[in-house]
Amino acid sequence: MDAETARALMARRRDDIRGRLDEVDRRLAAVREARGDWTDEEHDPEGFALTHEWSQAEGARVRLGATLRELERAGDRVSEGSYGRCAVCDAEIPTAQLELQPERTACVACVDRRRR
Ligand SMILES: [Zn+2]
User: Fold this and answer.
1) Is 61 part of a structural domain of the chain?
2) Residue 94 lies in a domain
3) Which residues surround ligand 1, an ion (CB under 5 A)?
4) C-alpha of residue 77 to centroid of ligand 1, in Å
5) For residue 34, is pLDDT > 90?
6) pLDDT at 1
7) How far is the CA of 113 from the centre of ligand 1 (A)?
């Protein structure tokens, strides 16, 4: 994959992630507001649901933030000329995989192998 294509993919992915982060922030703000002065969350089903919603949104925010950092590192790899190679087996990562996740550092086969 050439650098120009890689950068374009990453820019699109970054916009997508930022959009999702905005959405998560709005959800967190809404929960914060709804939760207001609930003090007895454990015994209040609605309070519990809000706490659950909160932890889900927080989890999403952490994951999205991590992806943004991975994208930054991927940008460095484009500059170094090592972008698009699997860090494990050194094969070229298929374009279709990079189109979905331009921040990828390993090919799907290696990620699957590591998971097992
Ligand atoms: Zn690999």
Assistant:
1) yes
2) no
3) 86, 88-89, 107, 110
4) 16
5) no
6) 87
7) 9
Give me the domain span that covers residue 61.
3-83
Average confidence (pLDDT) over 46-62: 91
Task: Give the count of domains, the chain.
Answer: 1
Q: For position 40, what pLDDT does the model report?
A: 58
Q: Is the pTM of this model over 0.85?
A: no
- At 55, is the pLDDT very low, low, confident or very high (cuts 50, 70, 90)? very high
How far is residue 25's CA from residue 81's CA, in Å, rounded to a whole number? 35
Q: How far is the CA of 116 from the centre of ligand 1 (A)?
A: 14
Average of pLDDT values for 91-107? Answer: 95
Query: Phi then psi for 93, rounded to 5 degrees?
Result: -75, 130
Residue 27 lies in a domain: yes
* DSSP per-residue letters across 19-72: HHHHHHHHHHHHHHHHHTT---GGG-HHHHHHHHHHHHHHHHHHHHHHHHHHHH
Residue 78 lies in a domain: yes
